[in-house]
Amino acid sequence: MIPNEITKGGKDYTGYEYKTVVAPSDRVSVYLDAYENFGWIPDENAPVKQFVNAATLKLKRDRKILNKAELTRLQQHFEACMDEISSLEASKLKMATMFSLIIGIVGTAFLAGSVFSVTNEPPLILLCVLLGIPGLIGWAVPYGLYKHFANKRAVVVAPIIEQKYDEIHEICEKGNALIH
Asked: Is the dihedral angle over the CA atoms 16, 20, 21, 25 positive or is it negative?
C-alpha cells in the first residue's frame, strides 16, 4: 500500500496536487512525456484544450510523492530549456523579418517619391524612373532576403536546439530515476 493512501470503507484515497500548463500546439507531446518524468499525469477529468497555437494541459500528481523538491527543481530546469527552445525558434525569423520589412519600407518610400515626381507640374519623368527602379527592387527583393536570412539563422540555431533537447532528455532521465 502506498503511504499516502488511506483505506476507508474499502476505498483508497490519494491526495493530488494540480498544475495547468500552456504548451505550444506543436510540442504538446513533448510536454506530456516530460511531465510524466516529474510525477505528473494528465488529469482525466479535464481533457486537453486545444487552441490555434497553444494547448492547455491539466496535470495532477500525488501530493506525497518522494523527492518532491528535486523533482520540482528538475521540472523548472525542463521548463527553462523549453523556453530557450521557443526563443531560439522565434529567433530564426526575427532578423529575417526585420531586414525584409526595412527594405520593403525603403522601396515604398522610393515608389512614393516616384509617384510624387510624376504628379508634379511639370512632370519629372526622368526622376520618376530613377526613383521607381529602386522602389520596385525594394518591393521585389525582401522575400528572397527573408528566405536567405531565415535559412541562414536556422542552420546556426539547429545544433543549439538539438543540444537543448539532449539536455531535456537527461533531465527527464534523472526525474524518472527519482520516481522509480
From this structure: positive
Which of 25, 31, 89, 79 has its CA nearest to residue 54?
25
DSSP structure string for 47-105: PPEE-SSEEEEEEEEETT-TTHHHHHHHHHHHHHHHHHHHHHHHHHHHHHHHHHHHHHH
Phi and psi dihedrals of 33, rounded to 5?
-65, -40
Sign of the torsion formed by the C-alpha atoms of 114, 118, 122 and 124: positive
Cell of 62: 500525488
Q: Are 125 and 83 in contact (CB under 8 A)?
A: no
Q: Where are the domains of the chain?
A: 1-65, 66-180
pLDDT per residue as tens digits for the range 43-88: 888 878 888 899 999 999 998 888 889 999 999 999 999 999 999 9
Instruction: Give the CA distances from residue 124 to residues 113, 131, 132, in Å, rounded to whole numbers and listed in that order.
Output: 11, 11, 12
CA distance 71 to 52: 31
pLDDT over 70 (residue 22): yes
Compute the distance between CA of residue 23 and CA of residue 143 in angstroms, rounded to an integer.
Answer: 30
